[in-house]
């Protein structure tokens, strides 16, 4: 029972017994919630504010501030389709409803998979549903993470790797194979970048790895997400999708509402998928995937035919072709992300200005495209990037975007360090402590 001042509203990661509240004295309303299923405490969440709701389907809906409601509902209109796709793949949704609370911009994460009520960043509201893979991801956690939960943070990948794989399968069901392949290829590149940054023999690149005793967030790298997903995609490619899906669906059924360890996972897969086949055991390289650093030799590498054409345009631009002559008509967000990631590390001001003039990148409303563009501008110490960079860093607090940009600034000598301090001093009061704790270690005010 949560009592709040009128006219505020309380929502929770549990069944709402009084969705509209009940009078609880002068100027107060009480909201009662119930959750019958056992969950670990990190999945207990409460939100209170000026919150409105709109139904999106029989079991789905969105909460957010009233002024954001139309925009959020239009962006998340496919949630019911995502739910149906997830159930077709891996069995019934066991939590009753699935709603999303779109939070203010200071929310430090992309999403948080609280049962029945995902918390989500407004940075996914791109206007074209191009970033709703995040919602597919948080929905998938209703099976991998909330239903079958890693027992300790050493096996964080059992939540996030499974969920990233499942997310891609939902996206394929709802939006088609081409989009799913592009998103998988982008995730593979992110994993490769993380492994390159840390080194292929670094313990950080193992799936099952002990978290830092002082900062458990250190385990939340692309390795847990993308290498875990690559492991499952590799198993699917070896045994076939039909057989793999049957095992994964039964895995969720066998271990529903139970904690999971890497050792229990390996026992399950050997018992119910490998089934004593030594040749299959050897092909899967299970122990290498879970306990060794880097990526095993049997890895399935996702590719996108659309990206070959994108890479050709990036190469043409790098060779001197003016931006206006590039063939970019009809490109999706994912193709723009790939294009920006394929450009040369170093570019002149004139070349950057040409890109910005033709494609208006500094005024992008899509957070992922703008983030990629800002990284390029900072890396090249491109002075015109400063105003859009400052607007971005003072208007959103999502750590995925904020921390890399401040890191990039501090690596650009006196120019970047002075900018970082000035912008961070202005932005810091609006950031969540999760974000400031990370940025404080990078920018010394």
List keywords for this structure.
14 strands, 445 residues, three-stranded antiparallel sheet, five-stranded mixed sheet, single chain, alpha/beta
Walk me through the structure.
The chain is an alpha/beta fold and 445 residues long. The strands form 5 sheets. The protein has a 5-stranded mixed sheet with strand order 8-9-10-12-11. Strands 1-5-4 form a 3-stranded antiparallel sheet, with no helix packed on it. A two-stranded antiparallel sheet has the order 2-7. The protein starts with a strand and ends in a 5-residue tail after the last helix.
Strand and helix map with partners:
Blueprint: E1 2-5, E2 9-12, E3 15-16, E4 22-23, E5 28-31, E6 33-34, E7 46-49, E8 52-55, E9 60-64, H1 69-75, H2 79-90, E10 98-102, E11 111-112, E12 117-120, H3 133-140, E13 148-150, H4 157-175, H5 177-198, H6 222-239, H7 241-254, E14 258-260, H8 262-274, H9 278-284, H10 286-291, H11 305-318, H12 333-342, H13 349-359, H14 367-379, H15 386-393, H16 399-410, H17 413-427, H18 433-440
Parallel strand pairs: 9-10, 10-12, 13-14
Antiparallel strand pairs: 1-5, 2-7, 3-6, 4-5, 8-9, 11-12
Helix pairs in contact: 2-3, 2-4, 3-4, 4-5, 4-6, 5-6, 5-12, 6-7, 7-8, 11-12, 12-14, 14-15, 14-16, 16-17, 16-18
Strand sequence of the main sheet, in spatial order?
8-9-10-12-11
Report how far the terminal alpha carbons are from each other: 42 Å
Stretches with pLDDT under 50, minimum 5 residues:
none
What's the story with the biggest beta sheet?
5 strands, mixed
Q: Give me the oligomer status.
A: single chain
Structural class: alpha/beta
Mean pLDDT comes to 96
- The helix content, as a percent range, equals 40-55%
Shape: globular
Rounded radius of gyration (Å): 23 Å
